[in-house]
Amino acid sequence: MTTTQRDDGPLHLIGNNSPVTEEVTVEPTAVTGQIPRDLDGVFVRNGPNPRTGTSTHYFAGDGMVHAVSLADGRATWYRNRYVRTPLSENPGKSRFQLAFHPVDGTIDFRVTTANTHVITHAGRVLALEEGGFPYEITPELETVGPFTFCDALRTPMTAHPKICPTTGELMFFGARQRPPFLTYYRAAANGDLLQAKEITVPRATMMHDFAITATAVIFLDLPVVFDPVATAAGLPWRWDDTHGARFGVMPRHGGAVRWFEVEPCYMWHTMNAFDAGNTIVVVGGRMPSLWRDGPADRTGGLPRLHRWTLHLDSGAVTEEPLDDADIEYPRVADADVGLPYRFGYVTSFSMDPRPAHSQIYKYDFSRGSARQVLRLPTGNTCGEAVFVPRAETAGDDDGYLMTFVHDRARDTSHLAIIDAADLSGGPIAEVRLPVRVPNGFHGNWIPRNRG
Ligand SMILES: [Fe+2]
Question: What family is it from (predicted)?
């Protein structure tokens, strides 16, 4: 099986960024420690894995979902599957070739890499990428097909929708490179689309994530703007100092958007947001700039955890750094999304394709953003740490963190299961796999009793 990591080539194709070449269903080779018996479900994680073995940019690879099934204190299988999209089914054809209709100029949003996230809502598992429609897959990773909310979805869908833990509603947006640039959507807990509303913004910007509170949604209008000339570097986006930066606050059910000017920055990911009296608090990974000279420019700095306080009375914004560590993949417990919260989780981040090791940080915001660190062994790296609650009523550190870890020396991977209440003991279980799981983006836990 050709899963070996490459040593030479562009950064996004070497080390554990190297794509794997086969789809497999295998049993784990060993388990270190004890898998908690209350874990009954499937851990899924999406990421780019170009079928041709090469891609113009890390973000452009075909979506491959990796999954480990856990039940009764055992790990029963690992499998990896491409999301069957027109791109993965036509290796070598460009997105433009497949999506652009030469006669009427329309874009087919079924053409997507589907490579960024995988979520569950209303009993469906959806693989997401911000340039296209969601793709429904099964918990066993078979592709069902594009999902369009009964044709109500008329734009792409962000890879970072938010599910309200109180109402079960799914809130998301669709960003496009031509008008309408931004559309807001809200779906009921049963999956019915309740609302689609165009949001007026001056131009197309790269809007990767947003945030919700108990009452509002918050759009991020940041200065990475659409520029077809930048396509030569793999993606049509670049920094623009003239654009400024603003957060747009809108009631969840619609209404006027109120824009708050912030210091120019980019933010791939919010950690969370919540209402706090006459303010709204937003926490996320702030970068001073991004892609000033186009998508190949790596000089903009890495995300650091940052807090913005939006003062609803005055319109002022207070901004403060929360840590000086380079981080990515901020997450909170699903039960805390949009609500005041105590704990948040991130992974250390580096542009080095072979960092010495990864660290997982747990922040306690009741103690001045104090951080607890889990340092993986030398040569071991991981991506996003997903919080999995111990029970449906679990609090925001009553559960586990799960992440795929790559061991560079052995060139194999394992699923690490960590006690979220106390990172100091290291993983409580490691599910060792006979294959390598490449670096990727985002994932989730699918409980077997999903509704
Ligand atoms: Fe993301």
Answer: Belongs to the carotenoid oxygenase family.
